[in-house]
Amino acid sequence: MAASAKGRFVPVLAVVAALVAALLYRAPFSKSLGGEGCSLLPHDHFWIASDRVVTLGRVGPAAVEVKGGLINAIAVGDYRNFVLRRPLLDYGDAVIMPGLIDVHAHLDEPGRAEWEGFSTGTRAAAAGGITTLVDMPLNSFPSTVSEETLKLKLEAAQDKLYVDVGFWGGLVPENAFNPSALESLLNAGVLGLKSFMCPSGIDDFPMTNSTHIEEGLVTLAKYQRPLLIHAERIPDVEDDDGLDGELDPRSYATYLKSRPPAWEESAIKDLQRAMKDTGAGGRSEGAHIHIVHLSDAKTSLELMKDAKRSGASVTVETCPHYLAFSAEEVPDGDTRFKCAPPIRDGMNRENLWKALLDGHIDMLSSDHSPADPDLKLMEEGNFLKAWGGISSLQFVLPVTWSYGKKYGITLNQLATWWSENPAKLAGQKNKGAILPGYHADIVVWKPEAQFELDDSHSVYHKHRNISAYLGKELSGKVLSTFVRGNLVFAEDKHAKAACGVTILAK
Ligand SMILES: NC(=O)NC(NC(N)=O)C(=O)[O-]
Ligand SMILES: [Zn+2]
Ligand SMILES: [Zn+2]
């Protein structure tokens, strides 16, 4: 969809002041690199342009003016004819898109920096076109469940962020019935809360039941912030379907059977009252329930559709690994693929894509959750004992694009799933789109560029060997990433200084 008329401007910007200026300045891209500090560019007022800018629900030629960290103006049309007063970075036919917002990443500082950390995690994010991420409250030690533990997070993050980072706090039994404890955590700036309906594997992050959740939501309603839920629950009567007898712990089928779709179903059924409470006139109207990493595209998904239809304030995410892989393809003993809920069969994957395309799944997130490689027990290959979690932060854009191409996904859909809807969930009103007044959080990438994730490929997150994507042939290469106007990543280099900021809710 190219812009209709050459030089036609976005109405809100009827007059783009820069256009009347006389000087056309085009900085050759590589020469514009080399600035020190927060940005690889030496200036903070410039234009970027390409033939494929994703803005205003369209994709076409446009130039975007970046000034003081914000998007100042958008000039739609054949920018090659524009006369601009400031430097222009001409990206040709590359795609200019809102930076990705990953609402589900585990950066494990303080306490477990050997699993993942703020510096490595946010460098990986920048290299992957992610400009904002929201950190999960567990896997660091201590877990982020109080005002004090959030402070420790903030201290640990200082001077280490290459992209902007917000924080979810934990809803756990200890604070769920204690509104003043929850309020102090919310007042300290967490963007919302997160809870688990099954054991999380982390000692200081115990599971909550639906009563804890219903109570926690009442406090969240006052703040109009969401509750994110890991929705797997061990059903009251467990089907012992195939789980007795001799089980080979190296077989993926064994792991798959150990966490059936019935667990997701049981959790979501148990949440029905809590979800209803979020609707108009409900006890926790103003709060919102977001189901993280949905894997079951059957009954669990149908239950979410029902909840939406009945007016509950709910959304749901899935992750690239559920869209890229299927149980049939997971090699026995390859614990890099172990995550919870598990990657299910190929038919389920098809149905997840369908739900995403139909808008029943609202957004995508990485659930980047690496661990110390020793805990993955890669030699032993024991799926039942290995630590779960997929390591993927840097690859989510090429993965979504590469595996989505056969379903005909569009750049606009990518922006909806990875930027616009996540920004809404995280309450970020000036992020998630390329629009005047918004933060200049931008990824520039080449969807057609193919590469193999082999040993020669720079991987910035910790422990490249535990990522299930290694060895895959992908398409979609990130050229440049801007965070609030700072060029934080370009040509395989990061800016020298870590100038991402912590995002705290007010
Ligand atoms: N402790 C974790 O990191 N858990 C995570 N692990 C996964 N998904 O396998 C998660 O989000 O549930
Ligand atoms: Zn989870
Ligand atoms: Zn997670």
From TrEMBL:
Q: Which reaction does it catalyse?
A: (S)-allantoin + H2O = allantoate + H(+)
The protein's assembly and partners: Homotetramer.
**Coiled-coil intervals in this record?**
none
EC number(s): the record gives 3.5.2.5
- Which cofactors does the annotated protein need, by name? Zn(2+)
Pfam families on file? ALN_composite, Amidohydro_1
- What is the enzyme's main class? hydrolase
What does this protein do, in the record's words? Catalyzes the conversion of allantoin (5-ureidohydantoin) to allantoate by hydrolytic cleavage of the five-member hydantoin ring. Catalyzes the first step of the ureide allantoin degradation followed by the sequential activity of AAH, UGLYAH and UAH which allows a complete purine breakdown without the intermediate generation of urea.
Protein's pathway: Nitrogen metabolism; (S)-allantoin degradation; allantoate from (S)-allantoin: step 1/1
Q: What is this protein called?
A: allantoinase
Q: Which Gene3D superfamilies match?
A: Metal-dependent hydrolases
Cite the Allantoinase composite domain residue spans from the record.
Answer: 41-94
Q: What are this entry's molecular-function GO terms?
A: allantoinase activity; metal ion binding
> Per UniProt, which keywords does this protein have?
Hydrolase, Metal-binding, Zinc
Family classification: Belongs to the metallo-dependent hydrolases superfamily. Allantoinase family.
Q: Which residues form the Amidohydrolase-related domain?
A: 95-488
